Amino acid sequence: MSVVYLPGDKLPVSTGKEALIVGPGVSRADDRLVATQAGVLRSKQQPFSCWMDAHVRRYVPVRGDKVIGVITGKAGEAWKVDVGAAELATVSFLSFEGATKRNRPSLKTGDLIYCQVLLAMKDMEPEVVCIDSEGKSRGLGALPDGGLLLKCSLNLVRRLLSAKCALLPTLGKELRFEITCGMNGRVWIKSNSHKETIAIAQIILKSEFLNESQISELIRTIIDRCRGF
Amino acid sequence: MDTEMSSNTNDGETSAVSMTKLRTLRAQLSVLHRADGSVALQQGGTVVWAAVYGPGDSTASKRLNDRAFIDVLFKPKVARPVNDIGATKENVSPLLRGTCESMVDIRRHPRTLIELVVQELTDDGGLRAVCLTAGCLALLDAGIPMTAVFCGVSVALMPDDRLVLDPPLKEQKMATALFTFALKSAESEVEMISCDTNGRFQFDHFKRAVSLAIEAAAEVFLFYREMMQRKLSLG
Hints:
The structure holds two protein chains of two kinds.
Chain A: E1 4-5, E2 20-22, E3 26-29, E4 32-35, E5 39-44, E6 48-53, E7 66-75, E8 78-82, E9 89-92, E10 112-119, E11 127-129, E12 141-142, E13 148-151, H1 154-161, H2 167-174, E14 177-182, E15 186-191, H3 194-206, H4 212-226
Parallel strand pairs in A: 2-6
Antiparallel strand pairs in A: 1-5, 3-4, 5-6, 7-8, 7-10, 8-9, 10-11, 10-12, 13-15, 14-15
Helix pairs in contact in A: 2-4, 3-4
Chain B: E1 4-7, E2 25-29, E3 37-43, E4 46-56, E5 69-75, H1 89-103, E6 113-122, H2 127-142, E7 149-157, E8 163-165, H3 169-174, E9 177-186, E10 189-199, H4 203-232
Parallel strand pairs in B: 5-6
Antiparallel strand pairs in B: 1-2, 2-3, 3-4, 4-6, 7-8, 7-9, 9-10
Helix pairs in contact in B: 1-2
């Protein structure tokens, strides 16, 4: 069983002369690393980085995260987007593929966009974009109409996206669906029928605290129920 | 995630000898699905729910430029007069807010609001201390960054000069003084960071009460570890 550290605990990581990247949930106090969130310590080599794997529901924007936002209104030459953080983010009209001053993307309040966080600092409001540095969208942009937006914990999304989790591939063998996972704890699902969409939503939400074998059982149960057995 | 953990066996009902053990602690984390962090905590017969929302948006009146605003709302079940020995929002909110402001990393989230709502369900003594403990568990459940963990411990001074740790309501009503301590722990060092006292006592009683509370707090912190271990080492 992995050790869970509480805030204030000194972590067994040596802060020698090599480069060390201090991630979320860990902070430096003199020459020791200290936990600031309750969680399991995770680390990665080359360069050596460590962070706390804590169970959190509230999103704090981090540069580079791909998130699902909801357009809430206009502000000058940009839209205001709700990404689930403490402040609304902005997305400029020009931050979409093929957008020019004359050719604006057609988004309205309530639309969902899959965007990347460009600017996230504690003292400034976050900014998101739907293109990369080359001007290509690469999957970012407005999400199609229809579909269901789920709110879940950040941990669940990270797990869904990780290579080790077999939930989405297993589900993909049984049902046809489109899915977008935002690192801000939002998952958008669209399937052939409402019944299937709801079944997928239930599977995702219920899988949070199950291990891999229990997940395949869960998928089996819910899909059978959905198909009327 | 529902986790339940009970620690220790003392039920604190008898008062023939000096009570030096805390009452049984039981908690369930994440009981409220809309809150970012929540806990239902039971200590002996006292039951309290606490919920944390944040770091989130706030109105202009609750926005500080360089740090987070911590808003503590205590909801008593029974209206008590302001100077009552029991818990009222006049005595719980400032105690809890002050403790949170020193324990939570408020500089990390400026211009945001961290709201902590504590609801009294049953008062069987030591309610203020239980509110402190519940507050910390809710903050841990929410993953709010903190510099250390804290808890609350109450100690009563009885008319015969005896100190009773974590008294049930019957004993608390007969006490000449009630001490509520907020204690923090970074690794294994336990320190008292604030206290709230009611009644008349000598400084010697206070010193003894502090050392009693520090010993007892170690148990509460162990309980936190067990709770978070249960919650986080799955999956």
